Amino acid sequence: MASESEHKATIIDGKQIAQTVRSEIAEEVKKLSEKYGKVPGLAVVIVGSRKDSQSYVNMKRKACAEVGIKSFDFDLPEQVSEAELISKIHELNANPEVHGILVQLPLPKHINEEKVLSEINIEKDVDGFHPLNIGKLAMKGRDPLFLPCTPKGCLELLSRSGISIRGKKAVVMGRSNIVGLPVSLLLLKADATVTIVHSRSVNPESVIREADIVIAAAGQAQMVCLALQSLVFAFPILLFEYLFKFTENIDFDS
Ligand SMILES: Nc1nc2c(c(=O)[nH]1)N[C@@H](CN(C=O)c1ccc(C(=O)N[C@@H](CCC(=O)O)C(=O)O)cc1)CN2
């Protein structure tokens, strides 16, 4: 267990790191454009009019524009059928200008999220939510084509802040498919000793007190009052990490 004197918080400047990543991506896109005469294309699909989802999607689209990625925007009505949405995905799978497909979650209740995400071509699955990509993330010695952006953003913040993960005790708060679970798998791949605490955990505080790294992934402000290495996650880094991994995986030669 860390001693009391080691309980000093280090605030990570996510915005600053995001700015660096943003510049790196813009440079990468420029090089791709000069070499191949084309730029990465990201299809962003949103269903319905949830204000929070719209705001995330707008940020993603704006981020694309800022770094030179072409975004293809599809705003589908709340009532769109599952079949229509899947047909749109098939159309995007077949479009050579679209290198990545992102379906904003959550989807309306009448649409089966698992089914829809499974229809995305794994080579365009920039969210890394396709069962094959998640499956590879969960297995030793396998590498997914893409990683979910928020978990990847968390690890990028740690790495760019000079915080090593190997051998550390990492505690993840929350077990969602989007953040908690995949970030736990990523930390495990990075050789941390990982514990997940969630709504049914008994005495989570005692587990958190033992941690070297705490990742709060339960979407509730002020959830962690103690953290040995305090992490402040700023959304931009996640967004730009998203684009980062996205450009990394495009095969412009095919
Ligand atoms: N297709 C996807 N849908 C959704 C994703 C996703 O990664 N892909 N994630 C969320 C929504 N989302 C991005 O789209 C997102 C929401 C919230 C955050 C976040 O870091 N929130 C912080 C607050 C950050 C801040 O306000 O500065 C927090 O909750 O502590 C990141 C991404 C669901 N849908």
UniProtKB/TrEMBL annotation:
Residues 148-224 form the Tetrahydrofolate dehydrogenase/cyclohydrolase NAD(P)-binding domain. Its EC number is 3.5.4.9. This is methenyltetrahydrofolate cyclohydrolase. Keywords: Hydrolase, Multifunctional enzyme, One-carbon metabolism, Oxidoreductase. It comes from Cucurbita maxima (Pumpkin). It is an enzyme of class 3 (hydrolase). PROSITE patterns: THF_DHG_CYH_1 (PS00766). InterPro entries: Aminoacid_DH-like_N_sf (IPR046346), NAD(P)-bd_dom_sf (IPR036291), THF_DH/CycHdrlase (IPR000672), THF_DH/CycHdrlase_cat_dom (IPR020630), THF_DH/CycHdrlase_CS (IPR020867), THF_DH/CycHdrlase_NAD-bd_dom (IPR020631). HAMAP family: THF_DHG_CYH. Belongs to the tetrahydrofolate dehydrogenase/cyclohydrolase family. GO terms for cellular component: cytosol. It comes from the Eukaryota. Residues 12-127 form the Tetrahydrofolate dehydrogenase/cyclohydrolase catalytic domain. One of its GO terms (molecular function) is methenyltetrahydrofolate cyclohydrolase activity. Signal peptide: none annotated. GO terms for biological process: tetrahydrofolate interconversion. Pfam families: THF_DHG_CYH (PF00763), THF_DHG_CYH_C (PF02882).
